[in-house]
Design goal:
Elements lengths: L15 H14 L7 E3 L5 E3 L9 H17 L10 H4 L12 H8 L1 H11 L13 E6 L2 E6 L14 H13 L4 H14 L2 H4 L4 H9 L7 H6 L2 E3 L7 H13 L2 H12 L17 E4 L12 H13 L7 E3 L4 E4 L5 H14 L7
């Protein structure tokens, strides 16, 4: 792997660098400033209607679909949430009770309210001078799109206003971005077989992609920690660490801490017991290749390694092994400052 500076990525890949690569590609690809995706009012992502202005946009959507499929296949949890009307197209099994009109509430609230007004309008709808077309601002230019063939020349009446609402809803949630959806879906299903995906509902598929969006369960994490290098659950530094995570860190900082160690800001789908290798905290100076077991020599070396650790050093990590290498700091305040700096540095494998 090559980093953005053109240098070989530090570290030997044992899925850690690979996970970081997948997550970074997804993060940049779904960034709205890249013009491939937009954000709905409830902060979910869907293909941008003007992404067709981007060169090779269908190739890019196909590629991103493959990357997302690979992430789901490898159980790599991602920090993205996709719009339900977009996710729905990844599932071949159709929900007969689904109405795309309901999704408009989150995609375009003004349009949703207008269509809802038309739906309950008791007077003659033709007086509103509506046609089967919509005007959209495309990079500062007002463009008229037909939602059915020659729609701008067809007036809406009381007899067909429900058809108009349905057609407009389909246009905004699918027709306008159908090419992007098709390319993305084909890429995704290259890695994920349709029969696998069809077992899940839309919310379940979202959970497969991004895990739980709730705060990290620290009690679950505590119960599944492995300590090395002389650390144990009653060691002062470990006690300080849990106090800092619980009392000093915000929810966002806890997510950064988890990302710093595991390369993912969200907990594993099946909890921390399923993390492989397990989440491990080791004294920074402990040997990378020390023998297993509580031998007298190992205990003696652990005591020495803790005593010689410098308070000037930052915590570091090996995301390949879900390993936090933590110096034995002299005070809680030093630990707080060093840990906060480390998780916010975003230096990946280069931090030491």
């Amino acid at each position: 792997f090559i980093n953005p500076q053109g240098l070989a990525e530090a570290g030997i890949d044992q899925n850690g660098i690979f996970k970081e690569f997948i997550q970074e590609v997804i993060r940049q690809a779904f960034d709205p400033s890249f013009n491939l995706f937009r954000v709905t009012e409830n902060r979910t992502l869907y293909p941008s209607p003007i992404s067709d202005r981007t060169e090779n946009y269908l190739y890019l959507f196909n590629f991103i679909g493959k990357i997302l499929g690979k992430a789901v296949y490898e159980q790599i949890v991602l920090d993205i949430e996709l719009a339900p009307f977009f996710l729905r197209h990844l599932i071949s099994r159709k929900n007969l009770n689904y109405s795309c009109f309901d999704d408009l509430m989150f995609l375009d609230r003004d349009l949703y309210n207008n269509l809802n007004f038309i739906k309950h309008y008791d007077d003659d709808v033709s007086s509103l001078a509506l046609t089967y077309s919509i005007d959209e601002d495309v990079l500062g230019e007002l463009v008229t799109y037909d939602i059915i063939p020659c729609g701008r020349h067809i007036n809406v009446t009381n007899d067909d206003k429900i058809v108009y609402i349905h057609r407009m809803s389909i246009y905004r949630t699918y027709t306008r971005i159908k090419n992007q959806i098709k390319a993305f879906t084909e890429g995704f299903k290259t890695l994920m077989k349709p029969e696998w995906i069809n077992m899940f509902s839309v919310p379940e598929l979202q959970q497969l992609i991004s895990g739980e969006s709730s705060d990290i369960d620290l009690e679950d994490l505590k119960s599944n920690i492995v300590y090395q290098g002389g650390y144990h659950r009653t060691h002062p530094v470990i006690k300080w660490l849990w106090q800092i995570l619980e009392q000093d860190f915000s929810r966002e900082e806890r997510a950064l801490f988890l990302r710093f160690v595991t390369s993912s800001s969200r907990a594993p789908l099946l909890g921390f017991r399923s993390l492989n290798p397990p989440f491990t905290i080791r004294c920074l100076e402990s040997s990378e290749h020390e023998e297993e077991g509580d031998t007298l020599g190992r205990i003696f070396r652990n005591m020495i390694s803790i005593n010689r650790t410098s308070s000037e050093r930052l915590p570091s990590s090996s995301t390949c092994f879900n390993l936090l290498k933590l110096p034995s700091y002299k005070t809680r305040r030093i630990l707080l400052d060093k840990l906060r700096y480390a998780i916010q540095a975003n230096a990946g494998f280069e931090l030491s």
